[in-house]
Amino acid sequence: MRFRHTLLARILGAFLLNLLVVGLVLWGLYEFRVGPGSELAGLSEDRVRQAAAALSDQLIQSPRAEWPALLERHNKRHDVRFQLRDARGQSLTDTATALPKPVTARLAEVFPAPPASRLRRHLERQMDPLQLNAQQLNQVEAIWLESLRLFQSNQELEEAIASYERRIREVLSQSQWEEFARRAPAQFIPRVDPGELVIAEVTPAELHARFDADGDGDLNATELGVLLASHTPPGARPGRGTLPEEQATVHTFTQPGTEVIWAALEIPVRVRGVSSEFSSWDVMDLRPTPDGQRFHAVLLLRSDPVLGKSFFAEPWPWVTILLLIIGLSTLFWLPLVSRITRPLAKVTALTEEIAEGKFANRVELEQPDEIGRLAQAVDQMAQRLESLVGGQRRFLGDVSHELCAPLARLQMALGVLAENATSDQKEMLEDLREEVDQMATLVDELLCFTRTGEAREVQLEAVLLAPMIRELAAREASGLDAEMDVPVELTAHAAPDRLERALANILRNAQQHAGSGGCVDIRAELDGDQIELRIRDHGPGVPADTLDRLFDPFYRPEDARTRETGGTGLGLAIAKSAIESCGGRLHCRLPEDGGLEFILRLASA
Fold it and tell me: Percent of the chain scored above 70 by pLDDT?
């Protein structure tokens, strides 16, 4: 047999093809980014929005000084890292760590920096001697605004200025810091352009003159602190209200070379009519909406590797991918498994029939693999057994038929001799006659066995069970007390002569083994389109390991091998063949309280 026709070749082929399909699926997941950062199997956008909305509600109502603590509480709650960034990507809290360059580039792409404001232009003019680049300007702008807020709330202005200079030094290069230190400190100390301020009917010149205590034409740190502490620039006045619903776009992406996942979206952190009173300095680094009612910051979420955290990993998309792989694998394996199990089921059914003595059926399977060869071998075995058993039956039938005439003549001769024999001779002739009668009974049983086992069509008809069973019980089991529970209308579809022979043999077996004075229970009931008939004696029963052999020809349990009770060993074999020729089944069992029970199943007429 060629290798390509073997089961091993088919299994290996299906396995390799399955691996190829799974590989293509995984390649598609990677190529099209179907993973943690995708809509199919990644971050749950609704979940991100819910977490962002809960954080936004608290940020709107809280002073900026409390934002780091709020972020930390939400970090612990969701097991991720939240960062708050301004319109130019700078951190709005001191607790945020520096972003990797790919993430910074991605944020700049998704959230473009707004046009330069008057504040930005003012800062560019003020810091022009230091030759700052765009990134340094963004950092300085954030520090500048934060320092203005500190000047407004901190009574220790010298300490605030020292903090400002320390943070500026971290941004500047060595040469820039030297230029910063060489120039007059007042040039770079945060200040406000008087043109940015409007107080009632006071002009900028009047406002400048009012707070220029030393009359030098400029506002130093102390004068600026007094101005900011006593003035609230234009902005929202105190108010409360309901924050309208808004659907933010969630941007998710992975960091190249790592399993870290990021999500970014804009959230409102100040809302007119909802937030407490805030100044223009408080929202100067935020992105306003076109109507000027909301001021947004960028909320950035960072997760650890997907396998270690669950916030970004929704289970259902992964279940969908797993089910897809299982479904595709099933398409490849199901035909192969079916091609294996179906023939095996046929071979199993046929071998079970062979074990019951039915040799006529065949598998007739045409497959070039091992299962096909097995089926052919089983067919050949069934044909061989059918031929052997059929030959044995024919041989037994022929021998029995040939013995009938000599035995009949021998019985007649013994009768003639007995008429003229003396008393001593008659006793010996009686023993001889008993042996001849026993031989004649055996030959008759053999003939009956071969006829019931012949593979010829049997004429079946409707047979009333109650009258037949009652008559047979009175004739074959007269020494037993028969308890019958057989409905009078119960009719079986069977051959009357064969059914009668089978029931007679079973009742005769009960008579022989239950003993005189015992009882036999006979019960029948309709089970769908089948009739179940149970015949039970209350004798000693048989060993459990002999149940499967009771219907074998010439088999008798060891304790039944006597001439008086053992019979020929063909009665139950004839009963089984007769019932099966009627299309029924016969088997027996050992009840728990003793005895032996025969169960017949026949089609209902």
Answer: 75
Spell out where 117-199 has E strands: none
Note the pLDDT tens digit of each residue in 533-591: 999 998 888 888 888 888 888 787 755 545 455 566 778 888 888 888 888 999 999 99
Same-fold call for 370-451 versus 458-603: no
Tell me the sheet residues that pair with 264. 251, 300
- How does DSSP assign 421-456, residue by residue? --HHHHHHHHHHHHHHHHHHHHHHHHHHHHHHTS-S
CB 59 within 8 A of CB 53: no
The span from the CA of 533 to the CA of 527, in Å, is 10
Q: Where are the domains of the chain?
A: 43-308, 370-451, 458-603
Q: What is the rounded CA–CA span in Å between residue 456 and residue 65? A: 103
Nearest 5°: the CA angle 246, 247, 251 is: 140
Nearest CA among 295, 293, 268 for reference residue 281: 295
The pLDDT tens digits for 195-244 are: 444 333 444 455 556 666 777 666 565 665 565 555 544 443 333 444 44
Sign of dihedral through CA atoms 255, 261, 264, 269?
negative
Q: What is the mean pLDDT of the chain?
A: 77
Q: Which CATH class is domain 458-603?
A: alpha beta
What's the CATH architecture for 370-451? Orthogonal Bundle (1.10)
| Tens of pLDDT, residues 49-70 | 888 888 999 998 888 888 888 9
